[in-house]
Amino acid sequence: MAEKQILAIVTKNREKVGGTGPIFFADSDEELVHTATLLARVLAAAVHDLDNGSVVIVRH
Amino acid sequence: MKYLFTVGLGAAAGLSARWYMLRRDYRQYPSYPQGWAIHLFLGFIGGLIGAIIPPAFLEGDFSAISFLLLAATQFREVRNMERNTLTAMEATEMVGRGSGYIEGIARVFEARNYLAIWVALAVATVSEVVDPHRPLQVISGIVVAMILSWLLNHLMQGHVIGDIADIELVDIEFDGPVLVAGGVHLMNVGLPEARQTWLQKGLAVRIRPKGPNWKATLGNIGQMQAIAHDTSSMLGIYMDVGEQEFVPIVRRERESGSLIMIIIPSERDGKALVEAVSRVPVLEGAVRKPLQSAAGKMLD
């Protein structure tokens, strides 16, 4: 299995995230999805939903 | 040179046998025409080696035979060559073959050269037995070559997934962001748009093994990747470079050992998908026979 890597996090919920990776904040669901889509296209990676108002952009 | 006819006949038989075993199907491998040129030439060399062995024996030239046997071992290189080519091309495939499939293909190509040598050897032997009756040499050579090529090719044919498993379509649904098919969690799809695409265009199949031996075989990761690759190459695939959320995925149902595959083919046709999956070859390197062990029998 190839190495997986979290490239970025997009979240609506500032309290739920932290760490050293790039984190993008969104104010609404629409903005969250939009930012995540753009990031995924740029990074050629997949978007995975953590079901707590955050998504992670992961390269597989 | 009194053996020229026999050697020529044997080499031609080896070349024809190799040609007969080259197949052009959906995989387009070996590629045409350069790949064919390579393999036909190797087949000819193999045929020549096989054809020279009987005359060398008749002359009692055992050093020549030793050299010929040494030359025959050089065909190991064929496997390396195929492996290197396919591994180098792996990065250019939307859905990779996986190392299990690559090894399988490389092994087949090496083996086919040995089969060509066997055919040439047999034809040259028969030709020397009926020498110097030219028409009889040709006729018996052709008959032996045809029978042996067919037989060897027939024996070398492995199973396909349709032989070892039952394939049925299952529904795709979402549990929150998680794509579920046939009760198995396959992947987390983050974007609502991508979830819609899966629901509208995606298909899922369950591949249920026909027994414990085949259950172990289907559990091989190389076999799983081969199913994804071959199905994609037969049906086409709905994805662009880097769109990892649309990559076909094969996962295993822990309880039954069945495989579940999800894929978005170019066109949504369930029957075609079942047919495609059933035609995927079973990798020789993936076959396991736990039932032939004492412990395996106790579990069954």
Molecular structure report:
The complex is a heterodimer of chains A (60) and B (300). Chain A has one helix at residues 29-43; strands at 5-11, 23-25, 46-49, 54-59. Chain A has 60 residues and is of the alpha+beta class. Chain A has one domain (5-59). In chain A, strands 2-1-4-3 form a 4-stranded mixed beta sheet, covered by helices on one side. The longest helix of chain A is centred in the middle third of the chain and has 15 residues, at 29-43. Chain B is α+β, with helices and mostly antiparallel strands and 300 residues long. Chain B folds into 2 domains: 4-156, no CATH class; 161-299. Chain B is elongated. The mean pLDDT of chain B is 93. The A-B interface holds A 33, 36-37, 40-41, 44-49, 51, 55-56, 59-60 and B 176-177, 188-194, 241-242, 244-245, 247.
β-strand percent of chain A reads 25-35%
Distance between the termini of chain B: 64 Å
Q: Are there runs of chain A of 5+ residues with pLDDT below 50, and where?
A: none
**Helix fraction of chain A by DSSP (H/I, runs of at least 4):** 25-40%
Distance between the termini of chain A: 9 Å
**Which structural class matches the secondary elements of chain B?**
alpha+beta
Q: Detail the poorly predicted runs of chain B.
A: none
What is the ordering of alpha helices and beta strands of chain B? HHHHHHHEEEEHEHHEEHH
Mean pLDDT across all amino acids of chain A: 91
What would you call the shape of chain B? elongated
The main β sheet of chain B shows up as: 4 strands, antiparallel
Counting structural domains of chain B, the number is 2
Q: Percent of residues of chain B in beta strands?
A: 5-15%
Beta strands of chain A, count: 4
